[in-house]
Amino acid sequence: MEKKQSSEGTGVTSDRDSLLQVQRMPKVELHLHLDCSLSYEVVSRLDPSITHEDFQKDFIAPRKCRDLMHALTRAHRAVSLLQTREALRLATEDIFQQLASDNVIYAELRFAPLLHLEQGLTAHEVVATIDRVTEDCIRTSGIEARVILCTLRHFSREQSVQTVQLIQDFKGSRVVALDIAGDEAGYPLEAHVEAFRFAIERGIHRTAHAGEAAGPASVWETLRQLQPTRIGHGVRSHEDPELVAQLRSAGIHLEVCPSSNVQTNTFETYTDHSVGSLFHQGVSLNINTDCRTIFDITLNREYDLLHAHFDWRFPELWECNHAAIRAAFIEDSEKRELIRKLELHEATFLVPRL
User: Fold this and answer.
1) Which pLDDT score, from 0 to 100, does residue 23 have?
2) Could you tell me which of 329, 242, 215, 317 has the C-alpha nearest to residue 275?
């Protein structure tokens, strides 16, 4: 097989060696919806009547959806299963097993607690359960993690405020940040400004979905009204050079999920995706799966696709993981430890960086 010069360092690596390095490298995932990432093993335990064929039809989206909301119809069945403490425990343990398979060393798990109240749990009980199980899984797996609570675009002002108040109530736990997700193109931000202002005033970390189902104007609006330090997706920002410059100068980090964006028809094909352009223009970003079940994807597979379509190798993916750590919602001391793990792997499996 042809040898190719590494984009950094002085050695050469074959495609096979490069992919092996990528599989083994420690990874960081910042954009991961817990309730949309259930394995069939967990689904069948929660409801033994669901066959594997049912799972593929009802939980996994078509390879090409009409749009984001078409894909999200697959979320309803999963959320309906996660209405008890035991179900939430199994789902959290399951996602840690998936993270371990991808060699993830740090992850941020997000979900909307107000969607899990159908069988009598309170929102506080839902968050307490996820927080406790996350703590247990960190201890047993060695994977560091934090939890992000989501409000949704169609929620009311009161529901958004309730969501951010839960983060404040769990201050000092693994629950660290606020997100807004859902139908970006169908609902305005006005109902959620108060919740984000609450977060700003109390120093609560903030990310927000934007620039996925809608264009650059959605990202501008989100930055101005909600003041997040990260944007979930943000991939249509490339359509506005001024916005790209703003993201770069302000250090706004993009949580990019390429396969998700292709499957939801934000981009026609993987090769059309803006991730390469945004990366080479110096925008801080990292690679994520978004919803592992809905999009039938793993992080290792996502990295393989980046290699296949953009010829990304260890240096590009190493920089994305480094950027993710810099943008992570954790203390600086923990960031330094994660960077140490990245650099230890680099020293072991890659030629020295210049």
Assistant:
1) 80
2) 317
What is the residue-averaged pLDDT of the chain? 93
pLDDT at residue 353 is higher than 70:
no
pLDDT, tens digit, 9 for 90 and up, residues 262-313: 999 999 999 999 999 999 999 999 999 999 999 999 999 999 999 999 999 8
Strand partners for 255: 232, 286
Q: Is 44 helix (H, G, I), strand (E, B) or coil?
A: helix
CA pseudo-torsion sign 257, 259, 264, 269:
positive
Q: Decide which of 15 and 46 is more confident.
A: 46
Q: What is the pLDDT of residue 14?
A: 59
Q: Which domain holds residue 194?
A: 13-348
| Residue 251 DSSP class | T
Q: Which residues contact 249 (CB under 8 A, 6 or more apart)?
A: none
Note the pTM of the prediction, 2 decimals. Answer: 0.93
At 322 the three-state DSSP class reads helix
| Sheet strands (E) in the chain | 3-5, 12-14, 27-33, 104-111, 144-152, 175-181, 205-210, 230-233, 253-256, 285-287
Number of domains in the chain: 1
Q: Is residue 1 part of a domain?
A: no
Cα–Cα distance, 218 to 196 (Å, whole number): 16
Answer whether residue 167 is part of any domain. yes
Residues ≥6 apart with Cβ < 8 Å to 240: 215, 216, 220
Domain for residue 179, yes or no?
Answer: yes
DSSP string, 105-145: EEEEEEE-GGGS-TTS--HHHHHHHHHHHHHHHHHHH--EE
CATH number of the structural domain spanning residue 52: 3.20.20.140
Contacts (Cβ under 8 Å, ≥6 apart) of 140: none
pLDDT tens for 165-207 read 999 999 999 999 999 999 998 999 999 999 999 999 999 999 9
Kindly report the backbone phi and psi dihedral angles of residue 156, in degrees, each rounded to the nearest multiple of 5, phi listed first: -80, 170
Asked if the structure places residue 8 within a domain, the reply is no
Would you say 211 and 234 are in contact if contact means Cβ atoms under 8 Å apart?
yes
Structure tokens at 287: 């690679």
